[in-house]
Amino acid sequence: MQYRYRCLDCKEITEAVRSVEGRNDCPICPCGGQTRKIISLYTVHNDMAPYYDEHLQCHIRGKQHRQKVMKEQGVSEYYGAGWHTSARKSRH
Questions:
Q1: What does each C-alpha distance from 20 to 11, 69, 74 come to in angstroms?
Q2: Which residue, among 18, 56, 54, 12, has the nearest Cα to 3 in the 3D structure?
Q3: Integer Cα distance of 73 and 48 in angstroms
């Protein structure tokens, strides 16, 4: 599968093909900086219904719980071009 990683130094996004087991093996950015895996939003879940998030590898109880788990794991969401909310600014 193809995963996205954001550089902690230059903030550039790098894409890499990894197995599901190897998805947390973050590549080195072309600038030489460390990267972190980006969680892409591709499925919308009702905030009241718990679900298993395969990217975070845990059961999520709601929006706030998901944000807490993401912070603990050191990952961020990637919304892509055209996403204009205050939530985007606080996550980058």
A1: 24, 19, 18
A2: 18
A3: 23
Domain ranges of the chain: 2-87
Q: What is the pTM of this model?
A: 0.46
28 has pLDDT over 90: yes
Tell me which DSSP letter residue 77 carries: E
Edge to edge, what strands does the sheet with 35-40 contain?
13-17, 2-7, 35-40, 76-78
For residue 28, the 8-state DSSP code is: P
What gap in Å lies between CA 92 and CA 78, rounded to an integer? 9
Question: What pLDDT shows up at residue 8?
Answer: 94
